[in-house]
Amino acid sequence: MSAALRQTRAVIVNDKGLHARAAAKFVAKASEFSSDIHVCCNGERVNANSIMELLMLACHKGKEIHIEAEGEDATAALDALGAMIDAGFGENDETT
């Protein structure tokens, strides 16, 4: 039995968008899962395990991204990645 493709959407909320540090955190989290994970933004679809591909998306604050995962742990992967995005990659914890 093959695992179904799961999808979710999230809005980038951290001030700097999907920059190097945020992309590195995203790749690290995505690599914890065995599912095949892709991110879509600005009309492009890239592998979530590639920091260079994620950076090339140039997703800024307020941009909606689409995350797709296919595999045994797809739902857990989407939940974890979505929570990370919703939390601003831990960058919005500081008060300004």
TrEMBL record:
<dbReference type="GO" id="GO:0005737">
    <property type="term" value="C:cytoplasm"/>
</dbReference>
<dbReference type="InterPro" id="IPR000032">
    <property type="entry name" value="HPr-like"/>
</dbReference>
<protein>
    <submittedName>
        <fullName>Phosphocarrier protein, nitrogen regulation associated</fullName>
    </submittedName>
</protein>
<keyword id="KW-0598">Phosphotransferase system</keyword>
<dbReference type="GO" id="GO:0009401">
    <property type="term" value="P:phosphoenolpyruvate-dependent sugar phosphotransferase system"/>
</dbReference>
<feature type="domain" description="HPr">
    <location>
        <begin position="5"/>
        <end position="92"/>
    </location>
</feature>
<dbReference type="InterPro" id="IPR035895">
    <property type="entry name" value="HPr-like_sf"/>
</dbReference>
<dbReference type="InterPro" id="IPR001020">
    <property type="entry name" value="PTS_HPr_His_P_site"/>
</dbReference>
<keyword id="KW-0963">Cytoplasm</keyword>
<dbReference type="Pfam" id="PF00381">
    <property type="entry name" value="PTS-HPr"/>
</dbReference>
<dbReference type="InterPro" id="IPR050399">
    <property type="entry name" value="HPr"/>
</dbReference>
